[in-house]
Amino acid sequence: MDKTYKRFTVRGISDKPECDVCGKKNLKMTIVIEDEAGELLHYGSDCASRTLRQDYQGKRHPISREAAISMGRSAKRGDSFARLSQQVTA
To answer: Of the residues 2, 28, 43, 73, which has the fewest C-beta atoms closer than 10 A?
Structure first.
């Protein structure tokens, strides 16, 4: 089985109260993530942590909710991040 990955970039944090992935409402904030096609989506912290992966010592690991929120806050301040990925079965 070939492993292919979708690439994502964390762009910031928004005060939009709804997750575009699961539809959960009344959120305090959402994390703005850009996909490969350039589309900006608003993810709740749980959906963002399930979606985003990072490379560490040759393996891909999920990030924590806190890390996803921290990346969003840093991106909003103008800090840049490496692209993160999600594995997709081919």
So the answer is: 2
Domain range summary for the chain, segments of one domain joined by +: 3-89
Distance of alpha carbon 4 from the chain centroid:
17
Tens digit of each residue's pLDDT (9 = 90 or more) over 32-57: 998 888 899 999 999 998 888 777 77
Report field, pTM of the whole predicted structure over 0.70: yes
Cα end-to-end distance, the chain, whole Å: 7
Q: Where are the alpha helices (DSSP H) in the chain?
A: 45-51, 65-77
Spatial separation of the C-alpha atoms in residues 11 and 55, rounded to whole Å: 19
In this structure, are residues 61 and 37 in contact, taking their beta carbons and an 8 Å threshold? no
